[in-house]
Amino acid sequence: MVEDVVVEPMIEQFILWRCLHGGPLSRDTIDRWPSAITLPLERYRDRNVPLLVKLTRTYGACAIVARDGDEIVGQLRFYPKAVYGLEGAGGHLCLQQDHPAGPAEVFADSDFPAVAHIEDKTLVVHCMMTASSQQKANPYQRKGIGTRMVKALIEWAKANGWERIEADSFEDLPIIYEITGCAGHTFWEKLGFRLVDRHPHPDLQGGSEDVELVEFIKTLEEQAKSIGIEPARASDRLVMRLDLT
Q1: pTM value?
Q2: Is the model's pLDDT at 133 over the cut of 60?
């Protein structure tokens, strides 16, 4: 039952080292995956677990999770903005991509600065997901779990010395919620975030030979046009910010 879902910071006892694209994960299932998956998940596990453990020990947490019994059904990953500037961080710190989109194999060996030594005390939301948006039936989506995770992050950030939170967003289009780890700007606005920057998303520009990316951009533009938004603006990155002080 959604009412029984617990929202809390991720702890070392269960490191969620991969995402919920295939649905909820538990200690019993996280290291098992269908043979049809071509991603090098074993290698990603060996890279991600030490990294997430070190981030957790350095900052107290790097994710908020939603737990239904023994299963993780929601995730909100976040990192200090200062960490993104370190060599080997990659463009997105995506746990299921190779460098440079994801962290380098040895990124866990980096010296992560303590909060007290960070001048720009900003946390950046990397992604947010409830169960799997790719499931035909997802009992956890659109049930307020995402809102609960953001509120938990806000309270955690205030208690741990952070001054602001930033999140990438887009126009309010169905495909954004269906297959990405982002949310439309209205979601963030309802939680007190404000728009501080808007620019073309560097990863969503024309000329790509990636068929899936081309189809994604096409769908973005079609959905935008259907609700009266200029198609070219559908690929904009909207940076939302919440000041905590």
Answers
A1: 0.92
A2: no
